[in-house]
Specification:
Structural Genomics Hypothetical 15.5 Kd Protein In mrcA-pckA Intergenic Region, Chain A, Alpha-Beta Plaits, 3 domains, nine-stranded mixed beta sheet, 7 helices, 17 strands, elongated
Length: 240
């Protein structure tokens, strides 16, 4: 069950706020009855009609993408750059989908796309603590003290990050670089890069390896697949 104005917004009738105005002014019927109160919830079995036109609700779809570099994590880009949604459209995906969270332009790796707004919002909400694992190539030789700082939290934009998991994968003393695995359950803007900046090891390359229980096994860069039903159920379970 979802709020009526949210269902209308996801169906493309209007924004959520504009949908509320349509409801309040008597433009919306549910199962043949005009509704004007806020807070009404409807299921996929309820018939919603706006100004005499039945609401078309797309079935929920869920895709897992291995995002390549130099692609924008957005449904569209004002500068005309290629987006993650363009990748799916190019392969014939017709449904309107949106990325869950974001990866930077130069960051690669696992990304979910869906038209299930409720699940997307829950997965992004910090209280559910969905773990995300990154592999970062950084400048300098990372030591045990650096790893400890990442684990207990570092200051980013005046706030301490929550506890994380960190592990040194390898170092290259000739090139003066390190490869580090970092697992976090926050989603602040540029968080991973800023965490490494805080310990004076700026990121050279960044790849997101896992998202919650999902990984990229079998997906090359730029490839995507639909989630299996049990994977969707698992995501819904961990975000309840």
């Amino acid at each position: 069950m979802e709020r009526l104005q949210k269902v209308m917004a996801e169906a493309g009738v209007a924004s959520r706020r504009a949908s509320e105005k349509l409801i309040a002014s008597g433009h919306v019927q549910v199962n043949g009855k005009t509704v004007t109160e806020m807070g009404i919830k409807v299921s996929e079995h309820d018939e919603v009609v706006v100004d005499g036109v039945p609401l078309h609700r797309e079935a929920h779809v869920y895709y897992l993408l291995n995002k390549p570099r130099s692609v924008i994590t957005s449904a569209h880009d004002d500068k005309g750059r290629r987006t993650v949604v363009d990748i799916l459209k190019e392969e014939g995906v017709a449904e309107r989908v949106y990325p869950v969270g974001r990866l930077d332009y130069d960051t690669t790796g696992i990304l979910l796309l869906t038209n299930d707004g409720e699940l997307a919002n829950r997965l992004m909400h910090p209280k559910f603590e969905v773990e995300k694992t990154y592999i970062a190539k950084v400048r300098g030789i990372v030591n045990n003290n650096d790893l400890k700082q990442l684990r207990i939290g570092v200051e980013v934009n005046g706030r301490l990050t929550k506890k994380a998991k960190s592990r040194l994968i390898e170092t290259d003393h000739k090139k003066q670089t390190s490869l580090v695995k970092l697992t976090i359950h926050e989603g602040r803007y540029h968080q991973v890069k800023l965490m490494f900046d805080a310990i004076h090891h700026p990121v050279i390359k960044l790849h997101r390896e896992t998202y919650g229980p999902l990984d990229l096994n079998g997906l090359q860069s730029g490839e995507f697949r639909e989630l299996k039903q049990d994977e969707v159920k698992l995501l819904k379970r961990i975000s309840k």
